[in-house]
Design a protein that fits this description.
The chain starts with 20 loop residues before the first helix and ends in an 11-residue tail after the last strand. It has helices spanning 21-39, 44-54, 79-83, 119-127, 132-135, 159-162, and strands at 63-67, 92-100, 103-112, 142-150, 177-186, 192-201. The chain has a single domain (14-72, 91-205), classed as Chorismate lyase-like (Chorismate lyase, 3-Layer(aba) Sandwich). It is α+β, with helices and mostly antiparallel strands. It has a six-stranded antiparallel beta sheet with strand order 1-2-3-6-5-4. InterPro entries: Chorismate_lyase_/UTRA_dom_sf.
Length: 212
């Protein structure tokens, strides 16, 4: 974790959070709250629906998927093992941005086994922008988190000993990606069918800071 990102990686949210000790604590609490919500619910899409509604990011507060057309990535090491299939088994790749209104809340890579989905699910995933979680909701799936990584913290390691930073008097510099989750989705009998890597963006903070 780092206290402040390099200038080249900064992507300010539309709403500027001031660089003050209180704001840094508030931002950290918000990121950790979303992290906890994602860890305790099977669908990232539905969790972001609630986040969007609770923080009035858009009206209607509904998360939609925007497929990244032409996207392609080699199957990284560990995917076949995580999905419990042998090398050579058909594994599809899908990249999407999960958006609430104009806000891109998450950028996700998804490797999934089409033979473990229904024909209708595969058709929807291949021909539409439907979010993966909505497309496969009828599977009554479970989500098993492999890793949840805080990519950035507004507080430097050891702040509890050294005290809160005084603040700079300018907007808080927040990098584009603040949180990453890696998870496997499984059917009720434990069969894995999807490995997803989700990068949550600074747009999750695009709402006014608390007053006072």
């Amino acid at each position: 974790m780092i206290a402040d990102p390099p200038a080249a990686s900064v992507d300010m949210p539309a709403v500027r959070w001031p660089d003050t000790p209180v704001s840094r604590l508030e931002v950290l609490a918000l990121i950790q709250t979303l992290n906890a919500d994602l860890l305790s619910h099977p669908s990232a899409t539905l969790t972001l629906d609630r986040w969007c509604a609770d923080h009035k990011l858009a009206n209607p507060a509904t998360v939609v998927a925007e497929r990244v057309q032409g996207a392609g990535k080699p199957i990284p090491p560990g995917v076949y093992e995580a999905l419990k299939v042998s090398p050579g088994t058909a594994v599809n790749y899908r990249a999407v941005r999960l958006k609430c209104g104009a806000h891109v809340l998450s950028e996700a890579d998804n490797w999934y086994v089409p033979s473990r989905l229904t024909a209708d699910m595969n058709h929807a995933l291949e021909t539409s922008d439907i979010a993966f979680g909505r497309a496969v909701q009828a599977l009554n799936y479970s989500r098993h988190t492999l890793a949840a990584t805080l990519l950035w913290s507004p507080l430097a390691p050891g702040w509890e000993h050294e005290g809160l930073p005084k603040g700079s008097g300018v907007p808080l510099a927040i990098p584009r990606h603040v949180l990453e989750h890696r998870a496997v989705l499984t059917t009720p009998d434990g069969t894995p069918f999807s490995l997803v890597v989700e990068n949550y963006t600074s747009d999750i903070l695009d709402f006014p800071p608390p007053k006072g």
